């Protein structure tokens, strides 16, 4: 990094967290995307990406069916227009137009009359939550089925039913979105989220909305790092991206997978496979500085697309930022993960935390003290006792002493924040003040 970059970093202000009313804007995007029937592939994903292009200049990429991507192959493209179950009186008792969760995602087309007993072998319900429709998929086993509330199932009588799934499963393509924002350096920060779930608000849409508004905020300010935002269908999408971009992977210096960021639960951070990468430490510093309840989980090879980015052949410094993890809230993968399940304050908090995390990695520079023999006299430079409130002033003075003492060229600002147990913001401000007075020099 050049000296001027470091100086620019040190004088950069903390992110402005209210550049637009982020939670309202994110929620409006979630509302717009909610009705669309998405899947691994197909028109729902394309429509979603087209809507995202209204917000950020996303490049839409496609990979043809049958393309080998590592040990996988891009599946056939699935599209659906309609689906229903009618009773013998011709009444629609299950209707895809009312909820796209009613169809087993990736169902083969079907149109036939069948008995109740046979129909039941194709139905999925949640007996423990009898009013909710489950979300089920059958991506890699060709099948058809319907998902419905358990109460709907219980109401079915011995009758002959007409089932119709007007879908297609044909050669086509897998589609994903990519937005690259160049910065002062080639090192990249990856932000990735999955886009394959239909009408589910927290698991899927909250992550998409957060990524979009992070991208917009970052685009409006100077950046040390370059940023790559990926909007890919889960698993196969990140595998396809990694397969098509293997040569670029070395540029990824930090990464976050975003998922389930709009529920009322506390923040959960799942560490990268490296466990103590700079991104892991940056997230933990921000959560500690904030002081709100949170949890940090060790890496495990189950979850979202960190599974692929952290597979041993890549082992990238990519963690997963969530509120309540997948499978740990009752509404997960059901019709109850709806627009009402999203909490605007949580969305705003997730946005603000991600901004702070990226602010840490952007500003985590290393400096050398230019007056290392005994402490420099800070008072005569106006650096001592000038900060407002007593407690805040004391913390800022401590931060100056810590930064001076540990700026020996081998500790970066995050190291100093960790060792001093002071907030990163205080350490960053101290470094900026000392730099201004010529007491620090950035390590180039
Ligand atoms: Zn999911």
What would your notes on this structure say?
- The protein has 444 residues and is α/β, with parallel strands linked by helices.
- 32% of the residues lie in helices and 23% in strands.
- The chain has 13 helices and 19 strands.
- It has helices at residues 3-11, 22-33, 43-52, 116-120, 150-154, 201-219, 236-244, 278-290, 306-309, 344-363, 390-406, 413-420, 424-436, and strands at residues 59-64, 68-69, 72-73, 77-86, 92-95, 110-115, 123-124, 146-147, 160-170, 173-181, 188-194, 226-232, 252-258, 267-270, 294-297, 318-322, 366-369, 408-412, 440-442.
- The strands form five sheets. It has an eight-stranded mixed beta sheet, with helices on both faces.
- A hairpin with a 5-residue loop joins strand 4 and strand 5.
- Helix 2 (22-33) crosses helix 6.
- The longest helix is centred in the C-terminal third of the chain and has 20 residues, at 344-363.
- The protein is elongated and about 90 Å long.
- The model is unreliable at 1-19 (pLDDT under 50).
- Zinc ion (ZN) binds next to loops.
């Amino acid at each position: 990094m050049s000296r001027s970059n470091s100086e620019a970093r040190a004088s950069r202000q903390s992110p402005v967290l209210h550049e637009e009313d982020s939670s309202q804007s994110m929620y409006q995007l979630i509302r717009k995307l909610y009705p669309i029937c998405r899947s691994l592939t197909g028109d729902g994903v394309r429509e979603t990406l087209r809507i995202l292009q209204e917000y950020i200049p996303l490049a839409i990429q496609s990979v043809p069916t049958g393309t080998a991507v590592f040990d996988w192959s891009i599946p056939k493209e699935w599209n659906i227009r309609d689906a229903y179950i009618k009773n013998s009186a011709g009444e629609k008792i299950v209707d895809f137009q009312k909820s796209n969760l009613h169809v087993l995602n990736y169902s083969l087309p079907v149109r036939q009359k069948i008995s109740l007993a046979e129909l039941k072998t194709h139905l999925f319900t949640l007996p423990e939550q009898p009013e909710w429709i489950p979300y089920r998929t059958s991506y890699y086993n060709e099948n058809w089925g319907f998902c419905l509330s358990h109460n709907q199932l219980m109401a079915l009588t011995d009758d002959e039913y007409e089932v119709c799934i007007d879908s297609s499963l044909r050669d086509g393509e897998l589609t994903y979105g990519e937005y690259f924002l160049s910065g002062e350096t080639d090192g990249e920060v990856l932000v990735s989220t999955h886009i394959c779930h239909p009408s589910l608000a927290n698991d899927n849409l909250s992550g998409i909305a957060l990524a979009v508004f992070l991208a917009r905020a970052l685009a409006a300010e100077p950046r040390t790092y370059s940023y790559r935002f990926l909007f890919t269908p889960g698993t196969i999408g990140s595998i396809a991206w990694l397969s098509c971009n293997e040569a670029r992977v070395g540029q990824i210096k930090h990464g976050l997978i975003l998922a389930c960021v709009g529920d009322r639960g506390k923040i959960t951070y799942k560490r990268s496979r490296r466990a103590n990468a700079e991104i892991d430490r940056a997230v933990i510093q921000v959560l500690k500085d904030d002081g709100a309840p949170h949890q940090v989980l060790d890496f495990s090879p189950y979850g979202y697309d960190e599974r692929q980015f952290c597979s041993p052949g890549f082992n990238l410094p990519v963690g997963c930022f969530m509120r309540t993890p997948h499978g740990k809230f009752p509404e997960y993968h059901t019709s109850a993960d709806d627009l009402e399940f999203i909490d605007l304050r949580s969305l705003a908090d997730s946005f603000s935390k991600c901004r702070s995390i990226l602010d840490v990695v952007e500003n985590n520079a290393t400096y050398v003290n230019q007056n290392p023999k005994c402490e420099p006299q800070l008072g005569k430079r106006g650096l001592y006792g000038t900060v407002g409130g007593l407690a805040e002033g004391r913390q800022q003075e401590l931060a100056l002493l810590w930064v001076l003492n540990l700026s020996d060229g081998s500790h970066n600002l995050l190291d100093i924040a960790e060792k001093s147990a002071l907030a990163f913001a205080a350490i960053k401000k101290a470094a900026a003040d000392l730099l201004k007075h010529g007491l620090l020099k950035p390590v180039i």
